[in-house]
Amino acid sequence: MPLTAGAAVVIAAALDAAVAEPPDRVHPVARFGRLVGAVDREWVNPRRVGVAAAVFLPLAFAAAAAAVVAAGSVLDPWVGVALAGLVLFSTTSLRMLLDSAREVVAEADADVESARLSLRSLAGRDASELDAAHLRSAAVESVAENLADGLVAPLAAFAVCAPSSLALAAGAAAWVKGVNTLDSMLGYRSKPVGWAPARLDDAVMWVPARLSALLLAVAAGTPTVVASDRVRWLARRPASPNSGWPMATMAVTLPARLVKPGAYELDPAAYDLDPTTAGMGTPSLPSAADASRAVALARRAGLLAVALAVVVACS
């Protein structure tokens, strides 16, 4: 069981590197998203509907994934491994995240309008007024935040449960992805139905966000920075209790100032307890070199996450 669980992680990582994402017409998460879309309308009691959606929809998604893997394992253990790898592949994403970020960074100076359009695949913010520097900032912020949502969270859930059961592991990864999808589609202040999905996602992402910050710090060769007062202070700038951690870690390790206009500013020099850097001045928004380095750090952190998942799954 341990070796086959590790093999499922390797299958998922290999598929991600080779093809990035399943086609939309067969992508389980895309199909789940259409189900979630049916909830996004006016209700007499939207909070109650939101609670029901948060409880039952991710569980249904998880049950379907677990049932597929369990049925395959009955036929042959390696069929179960292959199906578990496919489930994990469909619930995690690294290559597409990195490719999308690279595209925005490459276009930011060459064609701002194209970069604004490309940013839509990374971030939900209004990019119509963003200049090249703010577009690069958005790409850096998004690649750090989405590393946690799109890779580390479902991968960690799979790895922790894999030693017990591949079917349970597949279900856990699908459940986490279901929670993330609900939050990304419904978890806005403008949507009354989104209160419960947003609160559930906050709870589920508490550990993965901080683990992602640690992986980024290790990838940068500064593992202790994630425990610094500077990162902890910056991590509280965004409204989310979780997304600030990988973004703050990225801001400090580059270093660069990350800004979402009207929402937050992550300035590594704004809180300075280190006498060797006091008075260094405010870092600029990410340059093209900074943004490319951020994408490279996210890639290394993602590969570290996969390696760690193999070790944990095989334990």
From TrEMBL:
Q: Which InterPro entries match?
A: Cobalamin_biosynth_CobD/CbiB
Q: Name one Pfam family in it.
A: CobD_Cbib
Give the metabolic or biological pathway: Cofactor biosynthesis; adenosylcobalamin biosynthesis
Where does it reside? Cell membrane
Molecular functions per Gene Ontology:
ABC-type vitamin B12 transporter activity; threonine-phosphate decarboxylase activity
Q: Which PANTHER family match?
A: COBALAMIN BIOSYNTHESIS PROTEIN CBIB (PTHR34308)
Q: State what this protein does.
A: Converts cobyric acid to cobinamide by the addition of aminopropanol on the F carboxylic group.
Entry protein name: Probable cobalamin biosynthesis protein CobD
Q: What species is given as this protein's source?
A: Halopelagius inordinatus
Which gene is the coding source of this polypeptide chain?
Answer: cobD
